[in-house]
TrEMBL record:
<dbReference type="GO" id="GO:0046872">
    <property type="term" value="F:metal ion binding"/>
</dbReference>
<dbReference type="Pfam" id="PF02449">
    <property type="entry name" value="Glyco_hydro_42"/>
</dbReference>
<keyword id="KW-0378">Hydrolase</keyword>
<dbReference type="InterPro" id="IPR029062">
    <property type="entry name" value="Class_I_gatase-like"/>
</dbReference>
<dbReference type="InterPro" id="IPR017853">
    <property type="entry name" value="GH"/>
</dbReference>
<dbReference type="Pfam" id="PF08532">
    <property type="entry name" value="Glyco_hydro_42M"/>
</dbReference>
<dbReference type="GO" id="GO:0005975">
    <property type="term" value="P:carbohydrate metabolic process"/>
</dbReference>
<dbReference type="GO" id="GO:0004565">
    <property type="term" value="F:beta-galactosidase activity"/>
</dbReference>
<keyword id="KW-0326">Glycosidase</keyword>
<dbReference type="InterPro" id="IPR013780">
    <property type="entry name" value="Glyco_hydro_b"/>
</dbReference>
<feature type="binding site">
    <location>
        <position position="160"/>
    </location>
    <ligand>
        <name>substrate</name>
    </ligand>
</feature>
<keyword id="KW-0479">Metal-binding</keyword>
<feature type="domain" description="Glycoside hydrolase family 42 N-terminal">
    <location>
        <begin position="27"/>
        <end position="399"/>
    </location>
</feature>
<dbReference type="GO" id="GO:0009341">
    <property type="term" value="C:beta-galactosidase complex"/>
</dbReference>
<feature type="active site" description="Nucleophile">
    <location>
        <position position="321"/>
    </location>
</feature>
<protein>
    <recommendedName>
        <fullName>Beta-galactosidase</fullName>
        <ecNumber>3.2.1.23</ecNumber>
    </recommendedName>
</protein>
<dbReference type="InterPro" id="IPR003476">
    <property type="entry name" value="Glyco_hydro_42"/>
</dbReference>
Amino acid sequence: MKRTQPAPLSVWRPINLDDFLLGVPHYPEHVDESYWQRDAERMKEAGFNAVRMGEFAWHIWEPFEGKFDFDLFDRAIEVLGKAGIKTILCTPTATPPRWLTMNYPEVLRVDRNGRRASHGSRQHCDTTSPVLRQHSRRITSAMAEHYKDNPHVIGWQTDNELNTTVSESFSDSAALAFRNYLRHRYQTINDLNFAWGGHFWATAYDNFDQVVLPFPMAPSYSSPGHVQDYHRFLAWATAAFQRDQVEILRATNPDWFIFHNLGNLQDIDFRAEFGQDLDFIGFDIYPMLYDEFRRTNGHAATQALQLDLCRSYSGNFLVPEQASGLGSQPSFTTMNPEPGEMRRMALSSVARGADGLMFFRWRPAHFGAEIYWMGIIDHDDVPRRRYQEAKQFASDIHKIKDRLLGTSVHMDVGIAGADFDNQEAHKTYPIGLPSPQDDGTLLHAHCYRRGIACGFVHPEDDLSRLKVFYVPHWVMWKPEWTPKLEAFVEAGGTLIVGAMTGTRDINNHIIREQAPGGALAKLCGVKVVEFGRLTAKNGDGLFQRMTPQAGLYDNPNRPAPSSAERIYALDFAGRRLEVEHLYEQIEIKPDVEILARWSNRFLEGEPAVTRRKVGKGEVIYVATYLTPDLVEALEEQVLSPRGVSPLLNDLPAGIEVTLRSSEDQKLLFVLNTLETPTMVRGLPSGFDLLSGRAISGEQELEAYGCLIISLD
């Protein structure tokens, strides 16, 4: 397993390893040592080459302050190594031991209600605490030094799912670190007061020592600039905590690869120091868990969405935890994958950018807060269907990895994503509107169903590989992004810009000109005269997106507002489409063509969707938010004429199709996400790498069946 220097962050970046990491997270400390040899033999038989371990074992590595004990893991690593299984170690800082929190209670996290965390869970300590950071460096140094020459240890994971259980802290150390962060960012208190709008509600500060953390609703709303900077600070603090560990590991053994495994992606700026410090990023993938929480389009579509979002942050990635079975903590339990479905979900991860995958977990725990979180081996130590599917998946990977590594996921349609400031800016002042990601998800879901190659792309990435690029209401627009869009369009690309884009500056202030402002307005050829909010279908008016902590207008006796008022519609190529969320009244330049007009109320006859030809390409402006019907119309009138078409025509429901490619490889993944066999027609001529058979025309895919067709 050799590491090369990682390329700059980009959605198109492959992982910088020469082999596919394949295995499981493993917890030898959870079972008697008599299990270890049998575990290693079964892993080898399954075709695995690596395990990940140690992330929750600080209390074992250092049973009391200054006393280190590596014996248990030394022996476990040796047993695995003799079977050909390499080890990825984790810095164990997600669960500091009880002696640390007892001796140094100031390291404990404080929630928004002022409640200090207690020991007994995970992520109970505050990453802004200088005391915690000191101990984090100490345990990392001790582990790195001990294992620097161990041939079985090939890489490291920093911490575990940073910010997943909780990302905020309102501790004294967080307040102090926040003030210091602001001193570096703004230099003078006058600049901070300007950025936060200190003349509004008399919120100006006399000096940095007066700055407070933005406690929610205390008693009313904080400045959007204040809240934005707090979350910027949390992202900076998370990256700084991780960097302490990365610097130690790099200095100890530069041949080690280093990554982190992300859970819910809160308060982490992947494109800044956090991602730049790592060789690659890992994303933990639990399709049925996402679907339970989001209630979207089924777990297959939800998994595809999550994978495409993850890839936008870093390019190809590792999956350090891929769901293998039922997942559970005391408050929830997911659905259980049916026979064949675990393998299909793993292959979906590979199809959408995974260059390594580890099934969570080797065996389930018999104690603790995840006793029903199943693994590859069952509670009774018997390998059943999940083990057999993991073994089959490993066989699949060994058949394709030489062609797979070095490829990236092909996209014809890109949706602007992976920008921390825009994600947070929306949260500071949502005014009942969908987030940019929520809006872009409508286009993504449509493309997923149709089999159109689509994903999320940051505007700083290479856009020349795309045919269409959609910007979904990014309120903060950096001027340096516009020339990249101009070049993309001049060369023949289609740019689609959504309403409200470019309406705020970096401080969360409304710009002092007609939106979208600056060069972006010139590129689009439109200016916004007026905007107004519309009630969403089946929404409940003003209060539909107020957060639970708001409380300001909570009234259990308040009647539900009607959602039947003020229906706005537009005429798009002869189709009447009702719109939701927002309208914009726009004025257009003489060289701008009207594709759709508002068809009722005071806007009747005015432009709603416009086109401006620029060089070989075009810029489309959409003066509202997307709906499923509007996305369908955009495909017919904009995407299809620009050469955007499905990877397979007449794609049956439940069939997922993805293309991974490089200069000399094209791998078409065709995956059946259904529990019934499905006939797929119109397959291109090629060679199925899994079965070894030539493919052309039509093929019946068994329940959860998979084809990986080499098209070269």
